[in-house]
Specification:
Distance between the termini: 37 Å
CATH architecture of one domain: Alpha-Beta Complex
Number of strands: 13
Helix content: 10-25%
Bound molecules: ligand MTE, molybdenum atom
Mean pLDDT: 89
Shape: globular
CATH superfamily of one domain: Oxidoreductase, molybdopterin-binding domain
Number of helices: 9
CATH topology of one domain: Sulfite Oxidase, Chain A, domain 2
Low-confidence stretches: 1-15, 32-50
């Protein structure tokens, strides 16, 4: 992957051009070059302007494991708003409009308000971070995300002394989100973290993957990624971030409280009532004879996060 060292402040809204416009522009440039109208000395960058590129400085905590192929990352998804099939988000989500987009920050904060997506993109320098991603369904991927710590946003909005939790609400658009016409979950999708989990430097406010803006099926234009928790804690296509004193009600916990706890830290010693969590299938390497991988405590991030849960019974607070 080319490492375009580029901070968000360099990403003007005008640079995030739809691919069609970019392709037309490139075709025009190529014709112009062929006709000798433009010197073909244009730096490679000039042709890349308008691409939906988004990459950053190399960030901390990156896993060195083999990355899951882009194709799998973008076609094997859980995004129930677009259906329960793994292939359905890639089919239906492209219709979702992600511009204009605003995220409301409210609740127990001193400087809440409405943040346009272009402002959020510029709030802090982008980082490239490769994280392991462990779904509660016992499969995993390794994904190169692009984003910055959620803590950057939290510090700017100044939570009050009463704020103990943060809730993330996903967009609800029954027009394009065909799955929300069915009562699969109590829509809109809501997830939540304890404030210290949300402030942890691993928790990423995420705008891209594989060096480009997030495809819609992966949660465009902005999602969270919390790599030591089961995937469902990482809410996609967020429109609201609410700081609360009480633990927020979250979609999966409300739907099946005995199966999906509020914490949902990856834990090979606490099985799901209907299956083991001791092992996982790594997407992209699952041949018939491929052995499953051992699931690691906190998905391998124990050194970073175990202290958040010191003294807690993780079987009780699963
Ligand atoms: N809004 C919303 N966010 C969601 C989901 C969802 O159904 N709706 N699914 C979750 C689950 S179960 C997983 S495993 C991850 C999948 O993220 P990915 O498709 O980018 O790999 O998104 C999570 N975030
Ligand atoms: Mo998941």
């Amino acid at each position: 992957m080319p490492m375009l060292i580029r901070t968000t402040s360099d990403v003007a809204p005008s640079q995030i051009t739809p691919k069609s416009v970019y392709l037309r522009r490139r075709a025009f440039l190529e014709r112009a070059i062929a006709m000798g109208l433009v010197l073909p000395l244009l730096p490679a960058q000039a042709l890349a302007v308008g691409a939906r590129k988004l990459s950053g400085r190399p960030g901390p905590f990156s896993a060195s494991e083999k990355q899951t192929p882009y194709k799998d990352v973008t076609t094997y998804n859980n995004f129930y708003e677009f259906g329960t099939g793994k292939d359905e988000p890639a089919i239906y989500a492209p219709k979702m409009k992600t511009r204009p987009w605003a995220v409301t920050v409210d609740g127990e904060v001193k400087r809440g308000g409405v943040f346009g997506i272009e402002d959020l993109l510029k709030l802090a320098p982008m980082q490239d971070r490769v994280y392991r991603h462990r779904c509660v369904e016992a499969w995993s991927m390794v994904i190169p995300w692009v984003g910055y710590p959620l803590a950057e946003l939290i510090k700017r909005v100044e939570p009050t002394g009463r704020a103990k939790y943060v809730a993330f609400t996903t967009k609800l658009d029954p027009e394009t989100m065909v799955g929300t016409r069915l009562p699969l979950l109590d829509w809109p999708y809501v997830e939540g973290l304890r404030l210290d989990e949300a402030m942890h430097p691993l928790t990423l406010l995420t705008f891209g993957l594989y060096g480009e803006l997030l495809p819609n099926q992966n949660g465009a234009p902005v999602r969270v990624v919390v790599p030591w928790k089961y995937g469902f804690k990482s809410a996609k296509s967020i429109v609201r971030v609410t700081f609360t004193e009480q633990q927020p009600k979250t979609a999966w916990n409300e739907a099946a409280p005995n199966e999906y706890g509020f914490y949902s830290n990856v834990n090979p010693n606490v099985d799901h009532p209907r299956w083991s969590q001791a092992r996982e299938r790594r997407i992209g390497e699952d041949g018939f004879f491929t052995p499953k991988r051992k699931t690691l405590m906190f998905n391998g991030y124990a050194n970073q996060v175990a202290e958040l849960y010191a003294g807690m019974d993780l079987k009780k607070f699963f």
